[in-house]
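ASSEMBLY PREDICTION REQUEST
Request ID: AP-0331
Submitted by: J.K., bench scientist
Number of chains: two
Total residues: 373
Priority: normal
Notes: Please return the full assembly, not individual chains.
Input sequences:
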Amino acid sequence: MSKLLKKLLSAALFPAALLIVAKILGLYLSTRIFDLDWVLRSHTSEFFSIELIYTDSNAALITNSYSNLIMVSTILIGVTILLFQAYFLHDSHQNPKVLIKLIQFDFIMWLVDSKTLYPKLAVWLSFLWLSTIVSIVQTIQSTTYIGIAVFAIVASIFTTWLAARDFEREIHLYIPSAKDLKL
Amino acid sequence: MNNRAVRRFKTKFGKFLDPFVVAALFLLFLIPAITVINLTPGYMKQNNTDVLGLSDTEAVRVTFNNITNEYLSTTTYKTMIEGNYEINVATYSRPSGRYSYNFMSIENNLDKDKYIFVTSSFSQIEPDTQISLTVDGIKYILVDRDGNTYSPGITLRQGEKFDVGVMVENDYDVSFSSNFTVHLSIGEEI
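STATUS: Completed
Returned structure:
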């Protein structure tokens, strides 16, 4: 079996579950914070058997928007941690000063290798884009505030750019660029 | 089987598992996406008017008037498909008798007849109880006393207005609560 596929599969389990948990948590928190009335509607004949129903459209808009914000933010936190690891705790391009500090404080085990980091980063970024697409679609359907979609788009583009930069730097460690070869 | 044989087996057949891993990976993205979309909350449309058609005067007007009392309550939902409504009816413990309440009025202002398709789904069927849909006092049985269910079709003549309601008849006292859903679909006669 392909090792890369195995790595991707195991890396995807946690963010997949986290995405659902964050959405549910967001719905719960926004309902509690804004003190909104809700009921559960069950459809026995449909594929999706349970639906959360609020008393008016504004309540549904508020809960959906804030739950989407929590969902995007949760995945964004995960991506940010991985980007931090990529930039500061990556064994392949380690800053000597940081390395000394890590050894000093006995945090050397925090170093990550590329084989572990990049599959994780790719999966988490995919989930961030997935939550962004959901937010965009729901903004078009007028069920989410436009600000949430804008935040998600900006966050996704920025983190993808940072990840791409780090990946490029990593590639150049093994395949020198044309500029390097001239030197 | 020794370790070497296991390794050889894995090397030989492991590659055939790759498509399944890809499928599993795809599912790991698909399931959260579907779940998140499904978790999008809806909202009630109560005591409201819904207009199906071109304009306010030339259309089918549907007015909801949900009922809440000690024996019965109704909640009407407009579904995503135009002209489709779902009425959740909850019945509570009650003495034997006939209970009838109107929860909706439908006015056909078009110059053609419309047709109402009625279906219902019951979480449990109360024994010795008959449940009907009433349209201007005319009874259309949804479930009879023997537990047989029916799906009536009702013609909505042009220019007429109907009061739609639910009638629950039970021969004995009922000491528990139950609920059922009536689906109304307003369309053209087939």
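REVIEWER COMMENTS: The first helix of chain A runs from residue 3 to 33.
SIGN-OFF: pending second reviewer
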